[in-house]
Amino acid sequence: MTEQQRGLFATDPWEIDDRQFGNIAVVVFAEGASGSFDYLIPDELLSRLSAGQRVKVPFGRGNSTRVGYCVEVRHQQVPHRRLKSLAELLDDRPLLSPAMLRLTQRMADYYLTDWGKVLEAVIPTGVRAQAGTRMQTQCTLTTAGVAVSVDDLPTKQAAAICCLRAAGGTLAMAELQEQVPCTAVPLRGLEKKGLLRCHAERVQVAQVPHRARTSMEPITLNDKQREAVDAVVAALQAGRHEVFLLHGVTGSGKTEVYIKAIEEMIRFRRQAIVLVPEISLTPQTQHRFRSRFPEVAVLHSHLSDSERNAHWQRIAAGEVQVIVGARSAVFAPTPHLGLIVIDEEHEASFKQDKLPRYHAREVAQWRAESESIPLILGSATPSLETWQRARTGQASLLSMPHRILDLPLPDVVIVDTRHALGERRGPGAMSSRMLQALKLALDANEQVILLLNRRGYSTHIQCPACGYVAKCPHCD
User: Fold this and answer.
1) What digits encode the pLDDT tens for the residues 148-180?
2) Could you give all domains of the chain from N- to C-terminal order, each with its CATH number?
3) What does pTM read for this prediction?
4) CB of 370 closer than 8 Å to CB of 99
């Protein structure tokens, strides 16, 4: 076929497929548009971008700049003319691991929530704002700087090289200037000679206060406690996911089982997450864990943004052995997670009612399942869901029916106020039996707690003559 003949069959320009192979970032947003959006990755950002980082992208017809989360990086055939490019990376490294991305995607699918909203809730505000950090110029010796003879350098530059060698090759510029001492001019001179490299780096300013570990006498487990610990450790050693319902009466020593299981787990250089109701995050609870483990992070609602960010970075670096906190601690960025414990698993506070809604017990089970680790659910009064799982074999039941040292449970006296109305002394809900018990305690110089298990005022109307309680036909 001649050249002229081949030209008769040439493809017209409008028939050419403009799709090419390119690098794509899949981005989701916390607010506004639902779903995911594809963006081209510029060559200068490709080596620095990973799933789990935040990015700035143009969005919409006006190309307004928005912050989103990169949830996937892939190489595929794409129509270049229709895709926009990433504008900027906001994080030096991923905020979430691939396992956490899979967990948050499962949450979004199960709870019918946008993936971006889940990511926004999982990553604390202080972490997103990089609270308690600042940019700092670091000076690092190059290969030529390590080998250079200081005799051939001016005095200040020679002193700077010696200081860097003594420090292991890297120092903050401000610290180096103080040690030499010198201005930035000699250091810039070393940089021009190729002996020194100066670069900006974000460093942590706010430090988590270190609390000294207090020694405690070793505690000997009873038979039921030892059986529970052995069952959990066996699952940990086998590397399998298993859910344990630790059903023990109040005072049976469930917390000691948690601690012993964590001690065994730490021998494998793993980390543990312990979830407790917010109301149980008392100084006594914190002290109990800190007295047994040297590296404990306690996450609660009273932490400042800088403290929360400092904890997050230490946990992500693997420097923390045990994370104790309320429901949001289930998202702690542990790189070596080995065990999750939920104490008082029946508590309603483990369920978040604000968007994005989730139940920490369910999320903890998903996370433990995906990472093939044990999950301990402890309670004296398990939830119906957990009890049914134990009955049907979906969870292993570990029973502890007796208190430590077989101590008796406190006596509970139920007073029927309808029959005790004639015994009352004046108006109010206090029977003569309650008043008598209060008087005995106060006469013995003891303390009394009166718990009204409802909020509000005048929560019911009761007839003092017959005991009838009036109810609203619309809301009762």
Assistant:
1) 888 889 999 999 999 999 988 898 888 899 899
2) 18-124 (3.40.1440.60), 133-204 (1.10.10), 223-406 (3.40.50.300), 421-470 (no CATH)
3) 0.77
4) yes
